[in-house]
Write a structure and sequence with these properties.
single chain; mainly alpha; 2 strands
């Protein structure tokens, strides 16, 4: 948790009032032309008056209520968990609610209409239970909580995306709603939110004193007679309920819960009661200001633009500007600790067994599957000329892309000392996506080379931003992670806005982002293999750098390494490999986080063995994901990038559960 001394509520009040006034001015600019229509007693059929009463004003009220609730939820989570990264989005709470609503909308639509809040609350509680179960086993470490929260978020988002893609005829509206839509057609939602949020806010204020005592730490608070466990459970439950009811009403708008409490604290609200007052007001002002700016700039099309994505687009730069003022207290490097104490002989045997299993998996992915009538069968020799030209390139392309992402994750984790570092988490894959998107919108018919070049530029730009923001903190893990979350959210917001625009190219990007290998032909498979071979060769040549740079810049420089040159070269290599892999399987694969973790679980500690393990784990999981995507709902197909998250996330959660509780 960020520690500061003194309390200056005037600064927080000034920020809150400024945001609310600016938002109010924009809202008045929208309301003023038709405000006189409200005074007319018998207006008859007046479309502008009806639009103002039943759409514009309810939207303003919903933005204020949702922003306040999300900010209050983030404040509670950050206080009781003593974690500046805690929010409904980073802990998977909002993603769990979204998944539950999508699933119930398909399987039990009557239940969803009966009580959306109950469905969303169930999903949020289930996601939070998994996250906190892992966190409890590791002493509620900020890294453990956020890592497990990100895993749960990716898994829930992947499953929700699969459900939407497979039922797009019924759930097409969820593309916009899932990204956070404040568009209203009546006063139903704000009138339902108001009493619930009021009651929960009162409950939070009644807990102000116990929450203040949590600043003393568990030992100090317990010494004053506080039941720390009960207080933590009660506050977390309040935060979950707040996030759930907002998600059920307007979709996922998660960035407010992360940034509003930070603004409140950095502007002077350091006592708990002050935070409970000013953080919700700042959150309300932020969301309303964002939404009104969206309406002003987009006009009639604002109904189809996701406010949640726009909030991330505007809020992320604010968080990046605040990073130099954030003071972190955790300076350890948990990523370099290895729970398994295996001998080199045991690790070598496990590595050989992994290679054998991978070869068996490769043979199964190529030769075992479903016949045209749906039965499981082995590919007959006579059918090889007809089937292998379509199946083999996909398998090879998936393995090459997974291998590259696994190596990139290992490089980033060793350079940053952060076990959560990966191209997906740090926004590097999103940067590559932005680059490819720019190529599609700028060039008339971009080829593979142009897409790779633009994607590499986008990925390297994000890496440079992370490097620039992390230098002043000595690459503190919390600072690097916050930078990655902010950049990733901002870039994903750009994609969401483009997707909501209705441009056919945007829909192509959305399908490609899901990680589909449908269009991988022989030429693309060869290109991916060449890129993987070159990238892996360079990574293994740099193994000495990867062994020595984690010791610190001074130690590495004393040994004779040119630290800046080594870091820049490895970052450039990571950017290029991320771009090449993203072109094949999209940015949502999650392989860059799982591959290095699985390699460490095999006891592979030095750079070369860990890179080998990451290659095998990343390539194997992606190849398995492609096979599942082709066979599990035959004759339909599920994108491999989404399947890899479904396959790998539970495996990584199990591995985290097995790790001993850390001090």
């Amino acid at each position: 948790m960020i520690r500061t001394n003194g309390n200056n509520s005037l600064g927080a009040a000034a920020v809150a009032v400024t945001l609310l006034v600016l938002a109010g001015l924009l809202a008045w600019h929208q309301v003023a032309p038709d405000f006189s229509r409200l005074m007319v007693q018998d207006a008859g059929y007046d479309p502008q008056r009806l639009l103002l009463i039943y759409s514009t004003l309810p939207r303003i009220a919903t933005a204020l209520l949702a922003g306040a609730a999300l900010a209050l939820s983030g404040t509670l989570l950050q206080q009781v968990l003593r974690n500046p990264l805690a929010s409904p989005s980073t802990l998977g709470i909002s993603a769990g609610a979204n998944l539950a609503l999508v699933a119930v909308m398909l399987a039990f639509p009557a239940l969803e209409g009966f009580s959306r809040d109950a469905v969303a609350l169930f999903g949020s509680a289930a996601a939070a239970a998994v996250v906190f179960l892992i966190g409890a086993r590791r002493g509620f470490s900020p890294f453990a909580l956020v890592l497990s929260g990100l895993i749960v978020s990716v898994w829930s988002g992947a499953l929700a995306a699969i459900l939407v893609l497979m039922n797009d005829r019924y759930l097409s509206g969820l593309f916009i709603w899932g990204a956070g839509s404040l568009a209203q057609q009546s006063w139903t939602i704000p009138l339902l939110l108001l009493p619930k949020i009021t009651i929960l806010t009162i409950a939070a204020f009644l807990m102000a004193r116990p929450l203040s005592l949590m600043e003393l730490g568990d030992g100090g608070a317990s010494g004053l007679g506080l039941s720390v466990k009960r207080t933590r459970i009660a506050a977390v439950c309040l935060a979950i309920v707040l996030a759930a009811i907002v998600t059920s009403a307007v979709g996922v708008i998660g960035f407010i819960g992360l940034i509003a409490p930070r603004i409140a604290q950095l502007s002077g609200a350091r006592q708990m009661r002050s935070q409970l007052i000013w953080s919700p007001l700042i959150g309300a002002g932020l969301l309303l200001l964002t939404d009104e700016a969206l309406v002003l700039l987009s006009g009639a099309s604002s109904t189809f633009l996701p406010t949640g994505a726009i909030t991330a687009l505007l809020g992320a730069p604010v968080l990046l500007l605040m990073l130099p003022r954030l003071k972190t207290i955790q300076r350890t490097v948990p990523a370099l600790s290895h729970s398994p104490n295996r001998t080199a002989h045991t690790s070598r045997n496990l590595l050989l067994a992994t290679i054998g299993g991978l070869l068996a998996l490769l043979a199964g992915a190529i030769f075992f599957g479903r016949a045209p009538d749906g039965t499981w069968t082995t590919l007959a020799y006579l059918n090889w000329p007809d089937v292998l030209p379509y199946r083999l390139p996909r398998v090879i392309g998936a393995f090459a892309a997974g291998a590259m992402l696994g190596v990139v994750g290992a490089i980033l984790q060793r350079l940053s000392g952060n076990e959560m570092a990966s191209p997906e988490v740090l926004g590097i894959s999103a940067g590559a996506t932005i680059g490819v998107t720019a190529a599609l919108f700028i060039l008339p018919a971009p080829g593979m080379a142009a897409q790779l070049g633009f994607g590499g530029i986008g990925a390297f730009t994000v890496l440079l931003a992370i490097f620039a923001f992390g230098m002043r903190s000595g690459f503190a893990p919390e600072r690097v992670l916050l930078t990655g979350i902010a950049l990733g959210a901002m870039l994903d917001a750009v994609i969401s806005v483009l997707a909501a625009s209705g441009d056919p190219r945007a829909m192509t990007i959305m399908q490609w982002m899901s990680g589909s290998t449908y269009l991988v032909d022989t030429s693309k498979a060869i290109s991916a293999t060449i890129a993987a071979a070159m990238g892996l060769a360079l990574a293994f040549l740099a193994r000495r750098w990867l062994d020595l740079l984690p010791l610190g810049p001074q130690a590495a420089q004393a040994i004779g390494i040119r630290v800046n040159l080594a870091r820049a070269s490895l970052f450039a290599l990571a950017a290029a490999m991320t771009a090449a892999a993203t072109l094949v399987v999209g940015p949502l694969s999650f392989i860059g986080l799982m591959g290095p973790h699985l390699a460490r679980e095999l006891g592979l500690r030095r750079a070369a063995p860990q890179l080998t393990g990451a290659v095998l784990a990343g390539g194997g999981i992606m190849m398995l994901a492609d096979w599942f995507g082709r066979m599990i709902v035959f004759p339909y197909q599920i994108p491999a990038g989404l399947v890899s998250a479904l396959v790998g996330a539970p495996l990584l959660l199990v591995l985290l559960m097995k790790r001993r509780r850390t001090a």
